[in-house]
Specification:
single chain, alpha/beta, Rossmann fold, 4 domains, five-stranded parallel beta sheet, 48% helix
Length: 578
């Protein structure tokens, strides 16, 4: 494998990827588009979507000090055959504000120190273009604002063009807002706050600025009263810039087949795509792209998967990259902010239970003070990658959970809420999952789910009725390693409650699959209604079983049609339908 381009898992440095011959998906065709979109741009995307490596490519392309590396870094990329006039014409200053660390009281000092260090690095790199005495003058200043004035002021006199790149522009401000509340955050981003003061210097002093982050919240607060950048986040032309298209993923698979790392064959290619699709696919970042572009894959997740396929010759044991949990922890802290906490929790619970939420559209920007408004918070979930565009209907959007990777984060949140009131003992349930998958012993699994549901009285405080049951079962069935648990799959123009799809790639020994229909009775509902419900469940299950796609989804396993009925907290009926 000496000459094989390895998957660059965990590497976000463009030059390192190129110099070490790692596999690289070319996105350089977007550089001319960015030039045409304006001089001052803001683009937000969820974390771990390839922002940093793209910025590294942009920096290497525009930095005049990288001109001698043109062929080495860009020789086989699209832009090499289509260069723009601005190639290698800038002095590039690159900030990554995720590197600003420390407690809230130390942030002003730490921010200034970080910026000073990067500005000193810039001064050393380009000192030969300035007067001889200039470098010492920059280095003696201890305020980043003073260094910027020296750098930019003399650049204008000398006719030098400056390009400012800011990665993770909202990283530490999001942390401050989620951990210390809006008051502390407001002091940083409004009036004479240190972060706002810094941003006031940028637009007048740089020829071009590109800022990337996770959400537009911080930018909305920073720029109230002055305009610093055009927000291109929702524009159709950039829908596919920081993701992998299905074509990108297939090309990667075919490359590894061509070098003998992956078995050759169309069936193998399709098998790998179908393994990744439920976990990493289904993103859409522009309303206008919904009907024109195919849904897209999370690039970091694909690289995580392909690393396992190419190195270990098998899929990863956990389809969810453990490193992504640090990403979603920040969202959890936002949810748990004290102000209007219950309102925001209800949105997350609705999404977790239903898998979608209706929206009037993505709010392009909003201040932190308005984050609790439902449409804003729903949009924030979208910006974090926790929702994506699933349906466009008129002026409305149906925002959906994109895939199992994200769905697991919602279910983890639900389980933590349930576990607070009545600890969940998972050992017996996971044993029952194995017997159901391998031996067809489904009854212990469902009875244990019903027992845990009854035990966990806290559920009644979160949701009521059928929504209660659906959310609880979704969260627990998602822990079943043998299946892809798909709630409300459309079968024969109806939606089943649960379809346990066998994961034959990781567990080829699974011999049984299940379609489960759950009916719920309130405490005082009459027995006649109970009888009608059971008959309805049987008819629905038979109808679902004849759907054309069921034969493909069950993958040669024995299919079981199971009807459950609960009255309030008690399981009152459990039967297999012929």
């Amino acid at each position: 494998m000496d000459n094989v381009k390895l998957a660059p898992y965990g590497i976000s440095d463009f030059k390192q990827v190129r110099n070490e011959g790692k596999y690289f998906v070319d996105k350089s065709q977007y550089l001319p588009q960015l030039e045409l979109s304006g001089n001052f741009l803001l683009l937000t995307r969820p974390r771990r979507f390839g922002k940093s490596i793209f910025l590294g490519m942009l920096k290497a392309y525009y930095d005049l000090m990288e001109a001698d590396q043109w062929d080495a870094l860009f020789g086989d990329l699209w832009i090499h055959e289509h260069p723009t006039k601005l190639r290698h014409t800038f002095l590039v200053l690159h900030f990554d504000f995720s590197q600003v660390l420390g407690g809230v009281d130390d942030l002003p000092t730490n921010f200034n120190n970080y910026c000073c260090a990067k500005l000193d690095e810039f001064a050393h790199r380009y000192a030969h273009l300035y007067p001889d005495w200039w470098l010492a003058k920059v280095l003696e200043k201890d305020r980043s604002a003073d260094k910027i004035q020296l750098i930019c002021g003399y650049a204008k006199q000398l006719g030098l063009q400056l390009y400012l790149i800011i990665d993770e522009y909202d990283n530490f401000t999001n942390t401050v807002m989620s951990e210390h509340g809006e008051k502390v955050y407001h002091a940083m981003t409004h009036a004479e706050g240190f972060y706002r003061d810094e941003f006031k210097l940028y637009k007048p002093n740089f020829h071009r600025i590109l800022m990337l982050g996770v959400s537009p919240v911080t930018m909305d607060d920073l720029t109230s009263g002055f305009n610093i950048a055009a927000n291109i986040t929702l524009e159709e032309r950039y829908n596919m810039m920081l993701v992998f298209s299905e074509t990108d993923v297939r090309q990667m698979i075919r490359y590894y087949q061509s070098v003998g790392v992956i078995d050759v064959g169309e069936d193998r290619e399709e098998s790998l795509i179908e393994q990744m699709r439920p976990w990493y696919d289904n993103y859409c970042f522009s309303r206008r792209s919904f009907d024109t572009d195919t849904k897209m894959f999370n690039c970091d997740m694909v690289i995580y998967f392909m690393r396992s396929i190419t190195v270990d010759r098998r899929p990863p044991e956990q389809m969810l990259d453990p490193n992504t949990k640090t990403v979603y922890n920040k969202l959890e802290r936002l949810i748990r902010l004290d102000t209007d906490r219950n309102e925001r929790k209800s949105v997350v619970l609705e999404v977790a239970e239903k898998g979608y939420i209706d929206s009037q559209g993505i709010v392009p920007s909003f201040p932190a003070s308005d984050i609790t408004h439902e449409e804003n918070f729903v949009s924030l979930l979208y910006y974090y990658g926790m929702l994506t565009i699933g349906v466009v209907w008129g002026a409305m959007l149906k925002l959906v959970i994109p895939n199992n990777n994200v769905r697991q984060q919602y279910y983890d949140f639900l389980l933590k809420e349930y576990d607070k009131q009545a600890p969940l003992n998972m050992l017996e349930l996971k044993t029952a999952y194995a017997h159901a998958a391998l031996h067809g012993a489904w009854e212990p699994m469902l009875r244990e789910l019903a027992r845990m549901y009854k035990q966990n009285n806290s559920v009644r405080r979160l949701m009521e009725g059928e929504r209660n049951v659906q959310g609880f079962f979704n969260a627990l069935l998602a822990l079943n390693p043998y299946y892809l648990c798909a709630p409300e799959v459309e079968l024969n123009h109806g939606y089943c409650d649960f379809f346990l799809l066998p994961d034959h790639i990781r567990y080829p020994m699974v011999a049984h699959s299940y379609i489960i229909e759950v009916k719920y009775l309130r405490k005082d509902d009459p027995e006649a209604l109970a009888v009608r419900q059971r008959a309805e469940a049987a008819n629905q299950l038979r109808h679902y079983a004849h759907a054309p796609m069921v034969e493909q989804l069950r993958r040669d396993t024995q299919l079981h049609l199971i009807a459950m009925q609960l009255r309030n907290l008690d399981l009152v009926s459990l039967e297999q339908i012929d």
